[in-house]
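pasting for the record
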Amino acid sequence: QVQLVESGGGLVQAGGSLRLSCVASGFAFSTKTMGWFRQAPGKEHEFVAHIAWVTNTIVYADSVKGRFTISRDNAKSTLYLQMDALKPEDTAVYYCNTNPPRPSWGQGTQVTVSS
């Protein structure tokens, strides 16, 4: 059974930092391109970043480029997202998933950035 468990969210002031983690199980994590996505209230899931499984090629959404850093630890089946210089518009529930994403999502972790 596939499980994706996100953690590390919280309330932070604009300009602050958070580090998100996602522990995956039930599938071959090291052979998948993994991504972070976010969903603001009333909106669809939005792509944030992904890291490829073979080349470790990284892609960021323009809105987070230069502020967020994605990384992975295949030995721990864990995906990370270091978020710096946070802005109020980064407020959302953050999810990890394969990319392209599987139909089912984890519970996500709430990130709230106050101005």
